[in-house]
Specification:
The structure is a single chain. The protein is α/β, with parallel strands linked by helices. It contains eleven helices and eleven strands. A hairpin with a 2-residue loop joins strand 1 and strand 2. It is rod-shaped and about 105 Å long.
Length: 286
């Protein structure tokens, strides 16, 4: 059955006849009659009882009427949903833990307030893992550090981070890799972490990589460093939210190593209005 035929059928019922329905639909009566006959042929049953040049809806017509209205309403709802570009549905967001802890609190509040129809899911992971998840379609978008150009991705820089070395208060000043003691332990995330890569590349300038202990939380990493268990590299902004920052010593890196750019990434073939809306919320708080 065609939706247009169901629309004609409903018009005949609601307007009490062919001529009135034709006027309502801006059609000629013969066209309305042909549509009704076509629908009856498809169903193999009469939709109207014809008596004394008048039409009276049959029991089959009465049975069809509520379904016809539901089908037309559903079709209109589908069109409205597809035409309406306002953000809605699920948005799967990935972020590095440091970004989630320092940059996203206010944007998340604003986004939830402005777009309650969006169901937001958040996953924290290192940069390398987030990029893989976006490319695999398991995340809609992510905030990652220093992503390399990829023809499948849209990459939009959003935050400039200053990376610093941190140690306990008793550790000697660190200005170059040679200042690291030979027994120093590096506290870092997994190999997928862009900041860990930055740190190991910095160390490799002058010496072999020291012992590395992998940590899954920045607060745990900072607490271990404050306790004298090793050193690490973190965004400077992270220390503003760490309650025991006074127990840490901050060692600036040289210009060539301290600058990192956090960018939004999403697949070029998977753009959603909610992606653009969330990007705008974050930009409004930069």
């Amino acid at each position: 059955m065609e939706l247009s035929d169901l629309k004609v059928f409903i018009a005949v019922v609601e307007n009490g006849g062919i001529t009135s329905a034709a006027t309502k639909l801006n059609r000629v009566p013969s066209n309305v009659t042909a549509r009704i006959k076509k629908l009856e042929q498809q169903l193999g049953k009469s939709l109207f009882i014809r008596e004394n040049n008048r039409l009276r809806i049959s029991s089959t017509g009465e049975q069809l009427l509520p379904y016809a209205k539901q089908l037309l309403a559903l079709a209109q709802e589908t069109l409205d949903e597809l035409i309406d570009n306002s953000p809605r549905g699920k948005l799967r967001l990935g972020a590095m833990e440091a970004v989630a802890a320092t940059r996203l609190v206010e944007p998340l509040m604003n986004f939830h307030h402005q777009y309650p129809a969006v169901e937001l899911e958040i996953k924290t992971a290192p940069t390398g893992d987030l990029i893989k998840l976006v490319l695999a379609g398991e995340l809609d978008m992510a905030l990652v550090a220093d992503p390399k150009t990829n023809h499948r991705l849209v990459i939009t820089p959003i935050f400039n981070e200053t990376l610093v070395m941190v140690s306990d208060l008793a550790y000697p000043p660190i200005k170059c890799p040679q200042d690291l003691n030979s027994d120093t332990t590096i506290m870092a995330f997994s190999n997928s972490c862009a900041y860990r890569t930055r740190l190991t590349d910095w160390i490799r300038q002058d010496k072999d990589i020291l012992k590395i202990i992998e940590i899954n939380s920045y607060h745990t990493l900072l607490s271990c460093v404050a306790a004298g268990m090793g050193v690490g590299i973190v965004p400077l902004a992270l220390l503003d939210n760490y309650p025991f920052a006074a127990s840490l010593q901050v060692h600036p890196l040289s210009d060539a190593w301290q600058h990192s750019v956090t960018s939004f990434i999403w697949r070029k073939d998977s753009v959603k209005s909610s992606i653009e809306a969330f990007t705008d919320c974050v930009n409004g708080n930069v």
